[in-house]
Amino acid sequence: MAQRAAQIAGHLKKQGLLQGQVAIITGAAQGIGAEAARLFAEEGARVVISDIDAKKSQETADGINAAGGAALAVPGDLLSEDYIKELVRRAAEFGNGKIHIIVNNAGFTWDGVIHKITDKQWDTMLNLHAKAPFQLLRAAAPYFRVADGEPRNIVNISSTSGVHGNAGQANYAVAKAGVVGLTKTVAKEWGPKYGVRANTIAFGHILTRLTQAKEKGAFVQGPDGQKIALGIPGMTEAAAGADVYNDVPLRRAGTATEAASAILALASPLSSYITGQTIMVTGGRNM
């Protein structure tokens, strides 16, 4: 039995967990998305890099291709439905008429307390984190509602804010909670006949632009070209080493690679009987 298990593991490693599959990963020019793209490519997937940053998208794709993988950069704004349709079209061409995986990862935070959040802040978060994933799934439906025996997977990225709420993030929390409902609905609609699996990952404190010190000056371009500052005020290295992780059993933040590894695990055949679930990747926080 042990010998057979070793043979299967060796075969998967040689062939790649995602060999021959085509994956769209949004927000894949940097951070968790870029790490997921690299891991997917290492496991044999043909990866489509979707991100609003054209330069970094191409750099990520070039890096994967130079390492022997297969990647295509299709940059654009997910708040545009025309772009979403173009993304699906280009991905299907890249995949010779097939798409197997979608990872709805793109996003950022635009915080504010409830009595000060503007309609623009509210609408932007819901449009990016809930409406865009829905529109992408709808556009890609013809490639997922196919009974051809090949695996189809959707991994939607949520947050502990969407599961537990978070002060100062009403807009983000509502959007990320909606992602959980979307995931469960897709699992119930597309699972029975087509075998599509859909799961959510709710990340805790992962080391990205969204959790670094706001004072570092990272920003993203929002609606109308507005610069939106990213990060957490006062999240300095000294503060991070003090009490900030006391409620995390592992006593540290997660890395982008660890976060991306969770995405790969859910999209792979190692999770072939898991669907409709919200996986908490938090180092034990909020257990």
UniProtKB/TrEMBL annotation:
* Keyword entries, A-Z: NADP, Oxidoreductase
Q: Which GO terms describe its biological process?
A: fatty acid biosynthetic process
SUPFAM superfamilies named in the record? NAD(P)-binding Rossmann-fold domains
Q: Name one GO molecular function term.
A: oxidoreductase activity, acting on the CH-OH group of donors, NAD or NADP as acceptor
Please list the residue ranges annotated as the Ketoreductase domain: 21-196
Quote the InterPro entries the UniProt record gives: KR_dom (IPR057326), NAD(P)-bd_dom_sf (IPR036291), Sc_DH/Rdtase_CS (IPR020904), SDR_fam (IPR002347)
Q: Which domain of life is it from?
A: Eukaryota
Q: Which family does it belong to?
A: Belongs to the short-chain dehydrogenases/reductases (SDR) family.
Task: Report what the protein is called.
Answer: Ketoreductase domain-containing protein
Q: Which organism is it from?
A: Thyridium curvatum
